[in-house]
Each structure stands twice: as C-alpha cells, then as structure tokens.
Design brief:
The complex is a heterodimer of chains A (1038) and B (399). Chain A is mainly beta. Helix content of chain A is 15%, strand content 38%. In chain A, β14 and β15 form a beta hairpin. The longest helix of chain A is centred in the last third of the chain and has 34 residues. Chain B has ten helices and 13 strands. Classes of the chains: A mainly beta (1038), B alpha+beta (399). Chain B: It is found in: Cell junction, Tight junction; Cell membrane; Cytoplasm.
C-alpha cells in the first residue's frame, strides 16, 4: 500500500511527456522603461548603453532586439556604471559602497551578462566614520587597467583591473595640501572628491576636483601635482576639452567656468571665463556639464540644472548651448544622467557629437545633434508605457497583415519620424528570428488614450496612439493657448518627452477594450460609463458622433447615484485623423465605470456591463436592444461610485463607534449587574463582537452571503453562436456573469446581413444560473462539440479558422473566483468541475483559454485553461476535462497590481506589470517563447569568464533551466511520441468524437486509466495519511 | 373510517391580518386540500405580548380546531424550514419569536404506535412527514421536561473515529443550507511536533476564537487554540492563513475539519475505556459516535479528483438553473418587428410564474405536499406544486 503513497494522479509517463512538450514556464523579457533608473553608461566602442536601477538591476541595450539583464545579489541602488571600453565588461557602484565587475559572456551562441566579482573599499585605519571611505566618483582609465575611486573623505584610491585589487598608492588630501598656497588653505578640508577626469591626451595625468572648489591635475607616475586651480565656488562636475588645453567646471551656484591648463603656470587662480547662464538671480546647481568641440563652429555646451531658483527651480531641464543657439529642454521628470555619442577616435581633432542621450526618471530621450533644430529621435525600445498610468491592457495575437499595415500607417501620420534607422545605439546583433506572427498589445490609460504597441518581438515599439478625450467637453481644451505663450519666454523652454502623469479628468480613464481584428472595429469603455465604438478608417473625417444613453437601473427604485457625472459629449462635428474614428458613443446611466465589454462585429452588437447591470446595443442601427439591472436590493454601495467619500466616511464612523462601544462595555464587564440595562449592553457587546474588525492575524470563517456589497457588478460578457433554446438549433447568444455568481444567458435574434438596416435585434432571456457558492463569475466561454473554444467572429467566414463542431453538444465553461465548471448545453447540466479554492485555498484572478502547441510536433496542440490566482501562481487545466496539468509560481502574492494587470495571450504567453512602467513577459508554452536572443562580440585581453560556472541571475530571478535539461534526457520518449503522432491530429485528446483509434486512441485510454487510478489512489492516500498520523509506525492495522 | 393520521395545520399572524382577497383565495384552496388529505387549516392572529404559555396555546389550538381532548403533538416550521417541536414554554416562545410575521404550526394527532421522532433533517428533506411526532408521556406532569435526542436538529458530528489517532478529532459542521454563521475565527501560530530529529516547531493554523451563539460554539466540539490539521481531507500544512480561510469558506456548506484539540484530557479517558471494550465492538463504538452517514473523506477526495458531476450530485453544491420554457425554438430572422424591450418584458414576466424545472431535485412527501406556503407579500400562490414552496418574494432560493 505504501507504494501508492507518493504516486499522484497524472504520473503516467506518456502524459507527463506530453505535458513537458506543451508547458514550460519562463519569464522571458521585460518590456517598457526600467522602474526608478539610477545610473547610465555608454560604451562607444561596442555601442552599448547600460542602465542601472534602484532595485539593483543592470540592463544593457544595443541595437533593437539586443537586450541583456543582470541583477545584483543585494537590492541596493546602482549609483554608477562604467564600461571597460570595448571589453564587454563594466563596473557598477552600488549604494552599499560595493563595486561589482560584470562581463558579457557567450553561452550557447548568445550573450549573457554575468557578475564576476565584487570589491568593498576597506575603511582607512584610524578613521572611525565609514562615510570617509564612501565612494563618490569612479574613474576608469581608457587603458582599462586602472580604476581610481574618489571618496567622501577626499582620498583617491586606485584599483588594478580587472582583478579589483587595491593598489597601495592611495592619494590623500594631506599630500595635496602641501602644494596648496597658504591663503587658500584657511584650515578647512577640501571636501569630498567630486570629479575625477583622465587627461584626454596624456593618460598619466588625472584631474581631481574637490567639493570646495579646488581642482588638481595630478601625475600618477611621478605622484606630484602638475597644476592647481584654485576655484572658489563649490564644485559639481568637471569635463576636459578634447585637446587637453582647457577644462570646464560646473558649480553649485548655477555657473560654469572654463580653465586654461598651461605648464608654465602651476597655480591658476582665475578661470578664463565664468558664466552663470540663467543669472543674475540665484540659480540652482549645474549638476553635470559636457563640453563638445565641433568641426564646423563653436563648441557645444550641454548641462543639466542651473535654472533660476525662484521662477523655475522646480523644472527638470537640460540646456544645449552653441553660439547663439540656446535650447532649454524641459522634461517632466528628473534628469538622472546624460551622455553624448561623439567621435572617440584619438586621431580626430573634434568631438563632433551626433546625439545626446538623456536618461530621465521616467523615460529616455534622444536628441539628434546633427540635424538643425536638434529634434528628438524616437526610441525603438524603452517605451514609456506609463506616460499616463496604465488602467487596462488587451492583447491581440496573430494580427492580420491588413490591420497591421493600416495601424502602422495611421501611426506614421501621427508621428512621421517613426523609423528607427538613425537610432544611434546599435551595438550587438539581434539573433532572434523574425516573429512568425504580428502581435498587438493595447494599453488603456488614465488620460483616455489607447496606445497600440508592437508586441511581436523583444522590444515593445509604439505604433499608434488613440485619444478618446477629443469627443468630450473637458477642461483641458485651453492647453494650446498656453503652449503658444511659452514660445516667447526666457529661458527658451522646449517641452520634450511624453511622460505626462497628470490626467485632465479621471473619468476619461479607459477601463475595458475589445477588438475585432478582422473588421478593424474597436470598443473602448471608460470610467464614466462611456462605451465608444470605433471604426478604423484610412481617411481623415469630420463627422458627428451618435450618442445614446442606456439606463441600466431599469426603474429600480430607492437608488441614487452619488458618484461622478457622465462626460458631456461635444456637440457638433469633430475632426478625426486617419485611424480609429469614433462612430457611436453609448453612455451608461448611472455613469459608473464599465466593468466588462465585448464586441461581435458580425452581428453589429456590443455588450457592456457596470456595477449596476448590463446592456446590449446594436451599433449599426444605433439602437439599444437590452438593458438589465443586476443590483441586489440590499446593495447600497453600488450607488456611491468610485469617487464618493461617503462610503469610507460612513465606514470609519461606524468602526469608531463600535470601538467606543466595545471599550465601554468591556470596561463595565467586571461588575456583573443583572438589570435590564446591563442585558441590553451585553447584547450590544455581543453584536459588536460579531462584526468588529478582526485583528490582522485572525480570519473569520463565514460563508459568502447573498447580500454582499457590489454583488451586481457585471464581471464578464460573452457572445457565442451556440445551442441555448434546444439541442438542434443553434443561434446567437449573449452571456453575462456577475459578482454574486449569477449567469444570465440570452438568446438573440439577429437579422441576416442584408436586413440589418430594416430589422432590429431581439434578445430573450433563456437561462439564469445561480452558482451555489456565489463567488464572482470571472469568465464565461462556450466550447464546441469537440471541447474547443468557439472561434472569433469572421474567423470561420473568412476561412481563417476551422469551423466549430456544430453537430456535437456544446458546453459552457463558467469560471468563478472559486471553481471551474463545465455545463452541457442546452440543458445546462453540470458535466465537470474543479473546486480550486476548496482544494488549494487560492482564488481565481485572471483566466484565459490558450492553445498550446507541442515542441516536438507542430501538429499537436491542446487547448488549456490558464488561471492566475490571488497567490500569484499560475495553474493550467485541461479543457473540458478540467484536470490540473501544471502549476508555476509567477508573481509575488503581495504584488496586487501585478496580479491585477496580468493579461494572457492565445498562445500561452502573458504580460504583467512589474512596475508602473514595465511589463514582464512570460511564457507558459514550451514552444512559443519571445525572449532576447542576441550576441555581442568582444575582444578582451584576459578572459575571466572561463572560471565562472554560475548561471546568470536574471532581473526577474528565474532560471530557465527547465527546458534545456529536459530536452536531452527525454529524447527517447520524444521519438516515441512523434511516432504516435505521425498523422496530423488537431483535436484535443480529451475529445473522442472523431479521432481514429490508432493515433490518439491510446491517449484517450490513458486518460480513462488515469481517472480510475485517481479514485483508488486518493483513497489509499487518505488512508495512509490517516494511519500514519494515527498510530506509531509498525502497527498498521486496516 | 379513521384516517391513519390527521394532520392539522394552523397559520397565524402575530399582530397582523390577512388581506381579504388572498385570504379568500387561500381558503378556497384549503377546502380542496382538506378533502384530499383529511387535513384542516386555520389561520388566526395572536398578540405577541399576550401569548401566554405553552398550555394556554395548546388549549387555544384545541379550541380553534375544535378538537378538545384530542392528544396532539405540536410542531412549527422555523425560518430555515425545519420542523421543530413545541412542547414547553421555552420552545413555544422561541417559535413565536421566529414568526415573520406568519408562523406555520403543524398539529398532529398523537399516535402511540408510531415512534418516528422529529427528524434531524430539515422540513424540506423530510421523508415521513409528521407521522412520528412524539412526546414523552410525562408531558402533563409538572416535573422537568427533558427533550429526547430526536427532538433536536443535528448541527455537528464526530466522524472517522476509527481511523483517526486518539489525539485528533474530525468534526463535521452542518449548516443545513442556511446562512447561519459558522461562527469561528482562525489564526496563525506555531505548532510543536515531535519528529525523529526531536522537537520541531512548525507553523500551524489554530482556532482563535468562537463567536457566542455561533454554530461552532454550540457544537462544543471545537475549542479555542485547537490546531487545524485538515479541511475536508486536505492537509493544511504549508498553507497560509488566507488560503485556509478560503478553503474553509469554499467548503462552508459541508465543512469537515480535523483538529488536534488543545485540551487532550477529554478524549484519552474516553477512548481508553472504549478500546478496552474489545475489538469486536470497536466498529459499533465508532458508529455510535458518528451518527452521520457522511461520505468518508476518502470518497470526498474521489469527487474532488474526478471532477465529474453526476446527475443529481450527492454533493449539495448544486447550482440553481432557471430556464425560460417560453423560449421559442430558434427561428432564423424572424419577421416580426416587435421592439426588443417589449419582448424582454414579456419573457421576464413569464419567468416569474413558471415552476422550477425538474433539474432541481426537491424531496417532497405526501404530507408536505398538502401544505401551502403563503407568500409574505400576499401574492397569489400556487398550491398545486410543492416546488412552488421553494420560492419566496419572487426571489430565487438556492438549494
């Protein structure tokens, strides 16, 4: 009996093999802009850019598609990154004062980023405070064999590279002080080292800048001071002029100085020139300055900060100065760092910068410095997804080429410069094959825009932006006039970047998106109950939008909406650019946020739901078909709306009263007086105990009751051509599921294509299902006779998908937060179910039907139900048998916004937000994986990577070993499976309807066996457990 | 001919009066019922305050039904639809307090031969009606009245004593399909386990408190600080507090918890004596404790893994499916050009008057089918179908 103990259901090796071929979990790539970037570096030789983040991640970007990620073991902010030019190595300085050496290694013909070793600067003997040895600046010599570290204490230490061994030739301030003239000393220390710069021509000399203003040109070999520059203003940064004859220093008073370096004068008191560009009023510090010479004219000066403190102290600016040209780039977020891409060839006389790359807190901006007017260059990656907060997302797989081209052309008319050919950062080679199919990711934003992204490959590229705000009257219309006034002012501001976190009106926020990829129709639904039907058009248009209002309360009495008003639509015609153009606007009343929306372009119908009910609208005839209220009579919260403070105030009042009452009663409890009043108090105390807030470590065990608040919220809607009336005639149906476990099924009468205009659609309530456990209905999907999900509208009529089986009996898969259940149609009798919550104690958050294709055979695929739970793990179930297949940990359970943002694709991939600005892409399929495949070829003198066998820790912390190790050991089984699948079988093995016996008959039999085994095993397991727990080992009586 | 039993039924309002129309209608229907089942129905009002004691009420009923001197048993239907006895002042007052405002009293002639008691099941599930309403002989005596076990509704049971170790207890809580709170809280904690390696501390889940008057407290089987080991046969080891909470809530309609009671003194003595009774009686001893013929947890597991839902699932987790019979068969592109909202209104009104479908299995008995349930709002009631009794206020009741 014991041998059964550890055997579990599904241990059949054949099935296990198939599962391995179908499912594999990996987090593949992060899309978007790294959250909280803190450091920037550029390698001009390899043309790679590195960004470090506050969470300790390092990301390397080159040509589009070339991406690498590394993660430090400790989550400390990366404060500086320096490339060892051309070596494919870099050094990172963390917040915790450790220095790490990273290397790009080639493994399996692709490049990875690997940490080699780290270094921590030991404290100087005799000095107690550790801040003295805190590294403030790093200088990597161009020869890449020496690293100089400037510290807070003012010392400069030297390390040998690449071994990171401390050399015994540290330079301390007392040594410098000996050469400083007496009148400059005045008893004060020089302060921390602020800047270290290598002499551009003579690599033995370095420029050391101290915070107090002193700049020293130091000779490393002879260890003596070559020149002294007695600056009197607090120093921020230094930069050499290319010739080495002069350098520029920037200061905390908002000014910069140009200093001449001459061998004749060892001690310079005054600079050649000193400028405060935004003076004369007090200015903020110039944090960093770059000085680039050009062949054609005056040098280019680029600096960040320096704005007049009083009037523009809060702006995030970067100034570009050349002769009379002066542009103040005005960003919406803080400037982290910037660099120029320029000629680094020592033979050339000039820098001739070609581009300026600015890393901001929320986006990356690249300016073309060669074109007149210094325009911005659109980036092919690092897209600021969160330019307005993401409120929803929607993925479209296998986009038809026609729609793809039209979306791209619409996007190009919006932003004509959208080709990435002149992207200046182009190191490495992208080895990933061209994506087989086009994928679109649509993100809905708080400001009412929908952005279309190319999600086919590793880099998420913006394609097209759609704004819905233009059809409403909002307060933001006067923006243009403000911009006009801005042209005249000093400094010459120029708004750059697209990060704009300020929403004009929160009601514009997009809640739900539904697309028909074949007809180019789009439905967008928002926070104020607006549902907008749009049609893709290649022509500019100027038209009126039809507005319809649908009352979802349906004369239910006793409800007063206390939330926001609906958005007033613009009267008159509106001009629309080519792209998606609104045709119909449906406004739900009360104007609560839309919670579900779906579109059937073949039937010209949209369905939408809010917290009050759902509606069905014929957008062809502009005619409401149906409105149904789903409110429970006891539901009062639904009426208060999301912006109302009534709810929270009421709640907090109630709680505080309870607290007072409880404390009063418990205080009196000791004196037992049996009077009527004390009895009342006792009862009150009991009542208070009943519904008082429990302490966080306690959980109350109460079943879901019928009158939970917000029970009427419509959670999902779906259209299907199926059998609802009887088993022989199928027809259009519409399904709606609510928060309280109710499902409504309507039979629709949709006129034929020719009669759309003359005849109206009718809806008739066919079935009403109340799930016993009353958990919110998360999804509804109809399966055909073979257990496959029904195809999308137009897919069959355009020969793009196999026709569904309309002969066999259909079934409906209803997913609630707690259970999955398949009901047969039209009787709606339960067929299979899986009680996830009763088993695992987790709740369903997101669910999707995906198709998984085997790695070993392209012909073999299975449909599966993919489910993300509140614990952040992903479960995969077979459909329609609902048997658990695999389970993976994906998201931290504390990451609620990550779980809420998750969206699955039809091919077993998924996306979720790991920060407001980044999507993590993951794959559940063993076959469909979108991950960076790139190669950076490097030549380095001493290769250290040979003795570093560890796998690269990735930013997301997952190791992708699964697939690789499995591949080899199961080669034998693979062969076996291929032979079993020699004839093409498209059906799932669970349906036996029309499968020939010799191909998958075996599979079916296994399934049945499996099922029978389970019964015994479960029983045995249980007994074993009981016995083991019950009796001391050895006395096993049954 | 003397009928096998006479069942009388009284309805009365507390401080309330029937509306004329509905009263008339009901009366008509009642007449028919009386003929069929030899039953008699009365409806009357009673002041809640001046209700008096049990004896007074007993006599009042005898007067109203004109059966003075006939020895009868009284029962009432409580808010959950359970048939409960009225045989003393206390449960009479309890009955009055449960009137809402209508209270259904069932009066039955005492039959000495028949000894089927008030069942543990609810009124809905009752198979045998009122036949065995039984009362102790000493009722008329002023001495202390002690209810028989069968006068009580089962709320919990101890199960699987024969397969569990002495230190563990498996408790099944019966909710009877109601929304009565289970009434307990759980918390995180540290459990000490003895392993071959020595004493080990592992995280565990414990009962943190019982709600006064709740189901859990009233069973007396669960106590504060009892460690929860399993929920419906699933080990909770390694599961978080929230997971266990969700598991319990999801199983709340039929919750089986295996606990390690904090107080182990109660069971060791008890069990020891039982095992000394001999191996031959071990099985019967076990069954004596487990009144419940509940499916063993092993078979629970079976149903969990097989995923299949048999027709008439033994699991009482059946969803309510309401069908619209008026759905015409699908006619493609009907030519009628009625407005959509009109058709919808029609369909939903048809909906409200339609009996429940057969797919909802409703145990009904002959005596029960004779009872009518007037709806509280006085709307016309159908008495022809016992299934109609499942509906109240036009809302749908789940089974």
């Amino acid at each position: 009996m014991m041998k059964f103990r550890f055997r579990r259901q599904g241990n059949d090796p054949h099935r296990e093999k198939i599962k391995q071929d179908l499912f594999a979990f990996s987090k593949t790539v992060e899309h978007g802009f790294p959250n909280q970037p803190s450091a920037l570096a550029y390698d001009p030789k390899l043309q790679l850019m590195a960004i470090g983040t506050k969470s300790g991640a390092i990301k390397i970007y080159g040509a589009p598609g070339v991406e690498m990620t590394g993660l430090h073991k400790d989550t400390a902010a990366v404060t500086q990154i320096h490339f060892l030019y051309g070596q494919g190595r870099m050094l990172s300085l963390l917040d915790d004062n450790t220095i790490h050496l990273w290397e790009i290694v080639q493994r399996e013909n692709r490049s990875h980023l690997v940490e080699l070793h780290s270094f921590n600067l030991p404290g100087r003997p005799g000095i107690e405070s550790t801040s003295a040895t805190r590294v403030t600046v790093m200088l990597l010599k161009l020869s890449c064999d020496l690293l100089a570290l400037g510290t807070e204490g003012g010392g400069v230490h030297f390390l040998e590279l690449p071994t990171l061994t401390l050399l015994n030739k540290s330079l301390f301030q007392d040594e410098i002080m000996q050469s400083v003239p007496e009148e400059y000393k005045c008893g004060k220390s020089l302060g921390p080292v602020e800047s270290l710069q290598e002499h551009p021509q003579d690599s033995d000399k370095i420029l050391i800048g101290y915070s107090r203003g002193l700049v020293v040109l130091w000779d490393l070999n002879s260890r003596h001071v070559v020149n002294l520059f007695l600056g009197k203003q607090q120093l921020e940064s230094l930069v050499w002029e290319r010739s080495g004859n002069s350098f520029v220093s920037s200061h905390s008073d908002g000014g910069y100085m140009v200093w001449a370096v001459s061998s004749s004068n060892p001690c310079t008191h005054d600079p050649i020139s000193s400028t405060i560009p935004y003076g004369p009023f007090p200015c903020k510090a110039v944090n960093k300055i770059l000085w680039r010479t050009t062949e054609l004219g005056a040098p280019l000066v680029l600096f960040s900060g320096g704005m007049p403190r009083a009037s523009y102290g809060d702006r995030h600016c970067l100034t570009i100065l050349q002769d009379s040209s002066h542009v103040t780039l005005d960003f919406t977020s803080r400037v982290i760092d910037f660099f120029t891409i320029h000629c680094t060839d020592k033979e050339k006389e000039f820098d001739d910068p070609s581009a300026l790359v600015v890393l901001l807190e929320e986006e990356l901006v690249v300016i073309d410095l060669q074109m007149a007017g210094w325009p911005t260059v659109p980036a092919p990656y690092l897209a600021p997804l969160h330019s307005s907060a993401i409120t929803c997302s929607c993925h479209i797989s296998n986009v038809p080429p026609k729609l793809w081209e039209r979306v791209i052309s619409a996007g190009q008319q919006q932003c004509p410069l959208q080709n990435y050919e002149n992207w200046p950062i182009c190191g490495g080679k992208n080895l990933a094959p061209d994506p087989k199919q086009k994928e679109l990711l649509l993100t809905g934003h708080e400001d009412g825009t929908v952005r279309f992204w190319d999600a086919s490959g590793v880099s998420l590229k913006p394609l097209y932006k759609l704004s819905t705000a233009s059809i409403f009257q909002t307060d933001c219309d006067h923006n243009d006039s403000l911009m006009q006034a801005g042209e005249e002012e000093w400094p010459p501001f120029r708004k750059v970047g697209c990060f704009d976190p300020y929403s004009d009106d929160p009601r514009l926020g997009i809640q739900k998106i539904s697309v028909c990829k074949y007809s180019g129709k789009l439905v967008v639904a928002g926070t104020a109950g607006q549902v907008i039907v749009m049609v893709l058009s290649d022509e500019k248009s100027d038209h009126m939008i039809d507005v319809a209002t649908v009352d979802l309360l349906q004369d239910r009495e006793g409800f007063t909406w206390k939330g926001h008003d609906r958005l007033p639509p613009k009267s008159g015609s509106v001009v629309f650019a080519p792209g998606f153009q609104p045709v119909v606007l449906v406004q739900c009343m009360p104007p609560a946020a839309v919670t579900a929306v779906t579109l059937h372009a073949e039937w010209n119908l949209i369905a939408f739901g809010t917290s009050h009910g759902f509606g069905l609208f014929d957008y062809h005839r502009r005619n409401p078909v149906l409105a149904r209220c789903t409110l429970h009579p006891n539901d009062s919260l639904a009426m208060e709306g999301p912006l109302s403070r009534v709810k929270s105030l009421k709640k907090s009042l109630r709680q505080s009263f309870r607290r007072i009452r409880k404390s009063r009663v418990s205080g009196k409890k000791r004196a037992v007086v049996y009077s009527p009043t004390s009895k009342v108090q006792e009862a009150n105390a009991q009542l208070a105990e009943h519904d008082a807030e429990v302490t966080p470590v306690q959980r109350r065990i109460e079943p879901r009751s019928a009158d939970d608040s917000l029970s009427g919220v419509v959670r999902c809607l779906c259209f299907a051509d199926t059998f609802l009336r009887d088993g022989t005639h199928h027809g259009p149906t519409m399904w709606a599921g609510t928060n309280s476990g109710s499902v409504y099924a309507y039979a629709l009468d949709v006129p034929s294509q020719e009669k759309f205009s003359e005849q109206s659609v009718e809806a008739l309530l066919g079935k009403e299902i109340q799930l016993m456990h009353r958990a919110p209905v998360v999804s509804i999907a109809v399966l055909d006779g073979r257990g496959n999900p029904l195809p999308e509208p137009y897919e069959v009529s355009r020969d793009l998908a196999k026709a569904p089986d309309m002969q066999g009996s259909h079934s409906v898969l209803i997913t609630s937060e707690e259970q999955f259940k398949v009901f047969m149609l039209p009787k709606v009798s339960a067929k299979t179910k899986f009680k996830l919550t009763a088993h695992e104690g987790c709740r369903v958050r997101k669910v999707a039907l995906s198709n998984f294709t085997s790695v070993s055979s392209e012909e073999y695929s299975e449909n599966a139900l993919v489910c993300l739970t509140n614990l952040g793990d992903i479960h995969v179930f077979s459909v329609p048998a609902l048997r658990p297949q695999v389970r993976y940990d994906c998201i931290r359970k504390e990451d609620i916004s990550g779980i809420a943002s998750c969206v699955f694709t039809k091919t077993g991939q998924g996306f979720y937000l790991i920060s407001p600005s980044e999507y993590e892409r993951f794959s559940l399929s063993a076959r469909v994986i979108t991950e960076p495949l790139c190669r950076v070829d490097v030549e380095r003198p001493h290769d250290l990577s040979a003795h570093s066998p560890t796998l690269p820790p990735q930013a997301n912390g997952t190791h992708k070993t699964q697939a690789e190790s499995k591949a080899a050991e199961t080669e034998e089984l693979l062969y076996e499976m291929r032979s079993a699948l020699s004839s093409p079988v498209l059906d799932s093995p669970n349906s036996s309807a029309d499968i020939t016996l010799d191909t998958t008959g075996e599979l079916t039999v296994e399934d049945v066996k499996d099922f029978l085994m389970t019964v015994d095993e479960a029983e045995n397991n249980f007994r074993n457990i009981a016995e083991e727990d019950g009796r001391p080992p050895g006395i096993l009586i049954n | 001919i003397d009928p096998p039993f006479v069942s009388h039924c009284s309805f009365f309002y507390l401080n309330g009066f029937l509306r004329a129309a509905s009263a008339h209608q009901t009366a008509l229907q009642l007449q028919e019922q009386v003929k069929l089942f030899e039953a008699e129905y009365r409806r009357f009002a009673l002041k809640k305050k001046g209700a008096g004691g049990f004896q007074e009420f007993y006599q009042l009923l005898q007067t109203i039904h004109r059966i003075p001197g006939v020895d009868v048993l009284l029962g009432y239907a409580d808010i959950h639809g359970d048939l409960l006895p009225i045989n003393n002042d206390d449960n009479f007052h309890k009955a009055l307090s449960s009137a809402n405002p209508l209270l259904r009293i069932i009066i039955q002639k005492r039959d000495v031969d028949d000894s089927v008691p008030f069942p543990t099941g609810s009124l809905q599930r009752r198979k045998k009606g009122l036949a065995g309403l039984h009362q102790p002989k000493q009722r008329s005596k002023p001495s202390l009245l002690i209810g028989l076990p069968q006068d009580f509704r089962q709320i919990s049971s101890i199960i699987d004593v024969d397969i569990l170790p002495d230190t563990h207890l498996r408790v099944r809580l019966h909710k009877h399909g109601t929304n009565k709170p289970l009434g307990f809280y759980i918390r995180d904690g540290v459990s000490v386990r003895i392993t071959p390696q020595g004493v080990e501390k592992v995280p565990g889940i414990f009962i943190s408190r019982l709600v006064k008057g709740g189901l859990a407290e009233s069973t007396g089987l669960l106590g504060v600080n009892d460690e929860i080991l399993e929920v419906n046969g699933i080990d909770v080891a390694g599961k978080s507090l929230d997971q266990v909470t969700d598991m319990m809530v999801a199983n709340s309609h039929n919750l089986i918890v295996t606990v390690k009671p904090a107080n182990q003194r109660n069971n060791t003595m008890h069990r020891a004596s039982k095992t000394s009774a001999g191996n031959s009686s071990a099985g019967s001893g076990g069954s004596a404790l487990s009144h419940d013929s509940a499916p063993s947890p092993a078979s629970q597991n079976t149903s969990q893994y097989s995923n299949s839902v048999a027709e008439g699932d033994s699991d009482d987790d059946t969803d309510l499916i309401i069908e619209n019979d008026n759905l015409s068969t699908y006619t493609p592109h009907r030519m009628t050009n009625g407005s959509g909202s009109h058709a919808n209104a029609l369909s939903s009104s048809a909906f409200a008057h339609r009996p429940l479908p057969q797919s909802v299995s409703l145990p009904s008995s002959s005596s029960l089918s004779s009872l009518t349930t007037p709806t509280h709002n006085g709307s016309p009631t159908k008495t022809s179908s016992s299934q109609e009794s499942m509906r109240e206020d036009g809302n749908f009741i789940t089974l």
